[in-house]
Amino acid sequence: MTALMKPSILAIADSDSYLKLATSFLHRLGPGWDRKVYLARTPVMPTAQQIAAAFEGTDLDPAALQVVSVSQLEADSVDEDIIFASATGPVVAEIYSRMLRTEPTDGRCTALISALPGVAFPATQKGWNYRRAGDAFICHSHAEARDFSFMTEGQPGHQPTIMVSKLPFLHSAGFPPEQNHVVDRLVFAPQAKVPAEQSERESILLALEQASKLNPELEVVIKLRAKAGEPQTHLEAFPYDSLFTKLQSEHRISKDSQLRFDTGSMGEALAAGSALVTVSSTAALESLDRGLPTLILSDFGVSAQMINTVFTASGVIGTLDDVVGLNFGEPNKAWLRENYFHRVDHSFIHALEVLAQRARAGKLQTDPQMLAFIRRQPLRHRLRTTLPSPLVKVLVKLRRYFRQARRNGANSLS
Q1: Is the previous residue joined to 122 through a cis bond, with omega within 30 degrees of 0?
Q2: Residues 6 or more apart in contact with residue 172 via CB below 8 angstroms
Q3: Which residues contact 346 (CB under 8 A, 6 or more apart)?
Q4: Helix, strand, coil share (%) of the chain residues, nearest 5
Q5: Distance CA 302, CA 296 (A)
Q6: Neighbour tally for 132: CB within 10 Å
Q7: Residue 18 · residue 91 · CB < 8 Å
Q8: pLDDT (tens digit, 9 = 90+) per residue, 306-332?
Q9: In this structure, are residues 339 and 310 in contact, taking their beta carbons and an 8 Å threshold?
Q10: Mean pLDDT of 173-179
Q11: Cα–Cα dist 42/14, whole Å
Q12: d(Cα 310, Cα 332) in Å, to the nearest integer?
């Protein structure tokens, strides 16, 4: 494409982590592309503070962010060459179903791509099925690409092209810088889904409190994605700030505790002299990218359930005792090469430009089998985009209530 005909891309996000992926992805493409960001109107929409954090460090203007209803999107209303569906699975599926033409013989003028916002290993069939109607699916490591390629085996009809990029918020051209083990700030990056049990989460807070007491000069920060009750990508049954208050009321953490909670950007939290602890958060990759000591907790298992099997053989797995003692391992270079720290070249951007050219020329086709697959999507997948947000929030709370009731029932029988 000539300078007068820039390739164009529209990113549609629906939550804090996906908005961060969208803004950092478009920032990496640079001003050689026409770029827009939409925020889908759903119950997991980020707060104003989360939006500001997502745009921080990019060349995009947060004032240009538009909030839209996915249910109003139509193929004829989009002029961009590429739509980047940077959203949770059901919303991606709904975007795709609305953008794909019903006539399989017609050439489409908009390409559809998607990605996951962080670690996507091991690949899951559920996540793949939401996104397999697209023209391309973006992985962020060679290990991920191999795992997702297995999803295409034995599936008839259309399969998206698997592309390999680098997580757009990682800046190392290849291997990250060597670690500096002078630590004066310890950052814990929680996740909404893991660990799931209240007692496990409390054990993390108690270990952080002990680290703070044994190292009086150490600043200890729990970097929340959202405060208790605020929206985020996944439901959180036991928010850490609520558990901290509970532990103080039970005198298990002192009233004058030096633990601090923060909801700013991860980039600000991971300042020089910091070290990061997490169960499996993508923040571990950001920390490694900056050459900071990093520790993946193994106390609750290294498993698909804990979303941390990708860190097997990484050299940075440790325990809560290591947190208290500030003991950090060195990342394994063979692991780094296969997992997120491969060397960057221009092949990925070139592949996107070619995809944009094909879309502009109307050369993209919609597979008839894929159209049939889309029509069979369960109605519950569309609730986030078709029902009013207050009603969906009620349904989400009911789902959380009954899920916890079933869990309590199972525990009482064990």
Answers
A1: yes
A2: 289, 341
A3: none
A4: 40, 15, 45
A5: 9
A6: 24
A7: no
A8: 999 999 999 999 999 999 999 999 999
A9: yes
A10: 91
A11: 7
A12: 13
Check residue 108 and report its DSSP letter.
Answer: B
Please choose, from the candidates 298, 360, 355, the residue with its C-alpha nearest in 3D space to the C-alpha of residue 323: 298
Across 280-367, the runs of DSSP E, i.e. the strands, are 294-297, 317-318
Cα distance between residue 132 and residue 113, in whole Å: 9
Residue the block writes with tokens 């050439």: 107
- Yes or no: say if 51 and 62 are a contact pair by the CB < 8 Å rule: yes
Q: At 157, is the pLDDT very low, low, confident or very high (cuts 50, 70, 90)?
A: confident
Please tell me the distance from the alpha carbon of residue 22 to that of residue 37, in angstroms, as a whole number. Answer: 7
Shortest CA distance to 328 belongs to which of 277, 266, 271?
277
Nearest C-alpha neighbor of 175 from the set 316, 26, 27, 285:
285
Give the Cα separation of 6 and 185 in Å (integer).
44
Q: Considering only CA atoms, which of 108, 76, 95 is closest in space to residue 22?
A: 95
Structure tokens at 218: 């150490």
Tokens (6 digits) for 200: 């496990």
Tens of pLDDT along 43-73? 889 999 889 989 999 999 999 999 999 888 8
| 356-382 confidence digits (pLDDT tens) | 999 999 999 888 777 777 767 655 555
Phi and psi for 93 in degrees, rounded to 5?
A: -60, -40
Contacts of 133 (CB under 8 A, 6+ apart): 93, 96, 97, 100, 112, 158, 160, 370, 373, 374
For 231, residues 6+ apart whose C-beta sits below 8 A from its C-beta are 15, 16, 43, 44, 45, 46, 47
Task: Report the distance separating Cα 280 and Cα 368, nearest Å.
Answer: 39
CA 56 to chain centre: 17
Prediction pTM value: 0.82
For residue 346 the two structure tokens come to: 């221009």
Amino acid type, 246: K
